[in-house]
Amino acid sequence: MNKFKEFFIPVKHVIKKEVIEMKRSKMLGILLAAPLLQAVVFGFVATTDIKHVNTVICDEDCTVISRQLADKFLNSEYFNTTMIIRDPEAIEPELDANRANICVRIPVDFEKDIKKGKRAAVQIIGDGTDSNSATQTMTRAQLMVNDFSERVFAVKLSAVKNVIGPLPSLSMEERVWYNPELKSANVMVPGVIGLILSIVTLVIMSLAIVREKESGNIEQMVVTPITSIQIITGKITPYIIIGLIDIVTVVITCGILFKTPFEGSFVLLLTLSSFMILVNLGVGIFISTISATQQQAMFSAIFFLLPNVLLSGFLFPIKNMPLVLQWLTYIIPMRYYMVIIRGIFLKNLGFFELLPETAALFVYGLVIFTMAIKAFKKTVN
Amino acid sequence: MKTDRGTLDIRRIMPVMKKEFLHIVRDKRSLAIALLAPVVLLILYAYAITFDIKKIDLGVVDYDNSPMSRELAQKFTASGYFEVNKNCLNSMKKCVGALRVNGIKMILVIPRNMSSDIKMNRNVKLQVIGDGSDANTVSIGIGYAGAIIARQSQKILLEDVRSRGFSSGSISMIEPVPRVWYNPELKSVNFIIPGLCAIIMMLISALLTSLTIVREKEQNTFEQLAATPLKPLEIMAGKIVPYIALCLLDIVIIITVGTLWFHVPFKGNYITFAIFTLLFLFCALGLGLLISSIAPNQQIAVMGTALGTLLPSILLSGFVFPIASMPFIIQLLTYLVPAKYYIVALRTIFLKAGTGMAVLWGEALYLLIFGVIFLTASAKKFKKTID
After folding, report:
1. Per the domain annotation, does A137 fall within a domain?
2. Nearest to A164 among B164, B171, B318 (CB)
3. Nearest by Cα to A27 from A296, A295, A207
4. Domain check: are A267 and A335 in the same one?
5. Predicted confidence band at A69 (pLDDT cuts at 50, 70, 90)?
6. What is the pLDDT of residues A5-19, one digit of tens each?
7. Alpha-helical regions (H) of chain A
8. pTM for this structure?
């Protein structure tokens, strides 16, 4: 019991010092407000759903059927029809000037060809400049034309059925489990929470120790009887608590603002999030100990964060990446946290189902803290 | 003591520039990161990042196990959009478990009696289950599944009609024919370079310069500098010029690597490109200086610049998330983000041949106005601080 107290009393002092510095430099306020602000903005902005794309419909046929197809696009929330024209020459200037990003071109004799049973082609012209949006928009447009084709097909068929009798057919019954409305926000918002948390804790922590180095306090700390482990423990404790407070405020705010469903266990979320916070703090400390100036630390932190965010599965599915990069993602802590947070929010995953991810974070944390403490000891000596 | 408002003296600025330049060069790690990070990002975007949805992990539970059901399942694989998971094949329990832990994203359930029902001219319902926690993939995936099932349904139907001796001639297909203009291979890397240039410029000209100035404030060397014959604007100019040089070097690296290695097309005008880059640089610097004139210490400067420049430039500029998909209020907010205009201009310059200032004059004007506002505001704040 005494040994315990012996260890923690100096730690308490380091904590106090850190908190006073935070208050004095107004960082405390920022650490509590900034993640909230960022999460809200991100929540509004981050969507993988490409909607209201400016569309030009070029209807060269102007018949009942061509207008039906045009109507489909007019009524879709994915497409915002800016003009309906007849002359195909007018398409290029619209796309050139960024007034539209996609054009649906219905050819002459569309209705005639359909009635005669000939193949009718609908051109879908997309502006490939923004390849990510273009890919999605083109796919949706094609799916819509396919859908229209089926309807026309079905109409013809009922005519045939009146003659022949019943005909066999296949139909699809779709069911979406977890996030049944397929709302992009429900997927993005939990991801954003993880993202913001990581960015804030990592960047702030990476400045924490370098600050002492720059202002010369490190030498003063060295002459005290405090050990490296006590210093590090003391420094990270306030940030762990702030991180957890941040999670609570962000989850509640986002729940209210974006009506994000929360299916899982809040306690589990906090427990597993503390693992992630620790990993981030560990990386931050490591960066801090190997950097000479705050500027260098910040740069290194950003350099670590960039691939972290891009390869974590937050925006871009890991499955679509080349195999080599997929392997690389195994050393990215954010990857595991994305699975954890989305799993708890949307699928009510339990502790055992998340065990592989939790174990990965645990191991990562152990390794990074060992490295950080070693590096810190070296600096101090 | 008020200094005279004469022209800035280059001879006095040189030593400040040299000092700042030495600082930069001595910090080899930051320099390496500043020059390499854009290349790393280019590589990632070129090879890793795509929104194209292919090879969706699919679990198949075939209760019918007939040639017809197997043909249907095969069509899913053949489409290239799906990859059937062999581990949970034909076990609903395993498929559900796999769906839960992200092993598969969708499940196709083929009911018992599929072939017999088809032979009796009935309708067969195929269940397609999707994991909504990956809304993007599954939303498109369900679309693909629907199209594949519809096509197979048509095939079965037409075969049946023909087998009963009727002509299927009057039944046609409407086919969508996709055509992509300006970036026909839809390479992500072509699209990222403008955004990348904007981010790098924000990072270096806004973030770094604001740090530089706040560092001097923190270490109280400003007063020392104020005691020298240097005018405050000369101090600022001297500190900033090396970072501008670094910034422009970065841009050159990005363009060179992009066009030579990744074959990003550059159909437009180099002069227009240079004009826009300088205009945006002007803006980014202005913003950085403004924030640093307000921030009391480096930590706040970092957070403030990150929040005020970097984050909006990434989120609200149209770089990653399309502006048209955002809520209206946020769309209004994006009009205040300089990066948005730069990115639109650059994308047009890179991929659309023959477009120049005629199309982009609006963007240029915005950048100019923003730049002037930011720089005047920060210059005012600085004069106040130093005098």
Report:
1. yes
2. B164
3. A207
4. yes
5. very high
6. 788 888 888 888 888
7. 2-24, 27-45, 64-74, 91-96, 110-116, 131-164, 184-215, 217-223, 228-258, 266-289, 294-310, 323-328, 333-342, 355-380
8. 0.83
- pLDDT of the residue at B25: 85
CATH of the domain at A105: 3.40.1710.10
Is B190 a member of any domain? Answer: no
Q: Report whether A138 contacts A126 (CB < 8 A).
A: yes
pLDDT in tens, B291-302: 877 777 777 777
**Each residue of B136-159: pLDDT tens digit?**
888 888 988 988 998 888 888 888
Question: pLDDT tens across B237-277, in order?
Answer: 777 788 888 888 888 888 888 888 888 777 777 888 888 88
Tell the residue number behind the tokens 């913001």, with chain if given: A196
- Does residue B267 sit in the same domain as residue B133? no
Q: A291 in contact with B at a CB cutoff of 8 Å?
A: yes
Hey, what are A294's tokens?
A: 């705050």
Chain A positions touching B322 (Cβ under 8 A) are 50, 53, 130, 133
**What residues of B are in contact with residue A143 (Cβ under 8 Å)?**
140, 143-144, 146-147
- What does the DSSP assignment read for B173-191? -EEEEEEEESSTT--HHHH
Q: Which residue of B has its CA nearest to A291?
A: B29
pLDDT of residue B2: 42
How many structural domains are present in chain A? 2
B279 and B235 assigned to the same domain: yes
- Which residues of chain A make contact with B27, given a CB cutoff of 8 A? 292-293, 295-296
Evaluate whether B130 touches B142 at the Cβ level (below 8 Å).
yes
- Do B34 and B64 fall within a single domain? no
Q: Region A297-326: what's the mean pLDDT?
A: 84
Within 10 angstroms of residue A77's Cβ, the number of other Cβ atoms is 8
> Does the distance separating the beta carbons of B296 and A316 come in below 8 Å?
no
List CB contacts (< 8 A) between A44 and chain B: 326-327, 330
Residues of A in Cβ contact (< 8 Å) with B175 = 119-122, 145, 149
pLDDT (tens digit per residue) in B105-121: 999 999 999 999 998 88
- Is residue B35 packed enough to be buried (19+ CB in 10 Å), middle (13-18) or exposed (0-12)? middle
Quote the minimal CA–CA distance from A191 to chain B in Å: 11
B48/A310 Cβ within 8 A: yes
Shortest distance between the Cα of A2 and any Cα of chain B, in A, equals 38
Residues spanned by the domain of B285: 16-49+195-386
ipTM (interface predicted TM): 0.82
Average pLDDT for chain B: 81
Nearest CA in chain A to B204: A299
My answer on whether A233 and A198 are in the same domain is: yes
Q: Return the residue matching tokens 């059937």.
A: B84
Query: Apex CA B70: angle with CA B68 and CA B75, to 5°?
Result: 95
The mean pLDDT value for A358-377 works out to 90
In angstroms, the separation between the Cα of residue A119 and the nearest Cα of chain B is 5
Spell out which residues of chain B touch residue A165, defining contact as CB-CB under 8 Å. 121
**Domain ends where: A140, A164, A188?**
A164
How many CB pairs below 8 Å do chains A and B form together? 378
Domain interval for residue A198:
7-46+180-380
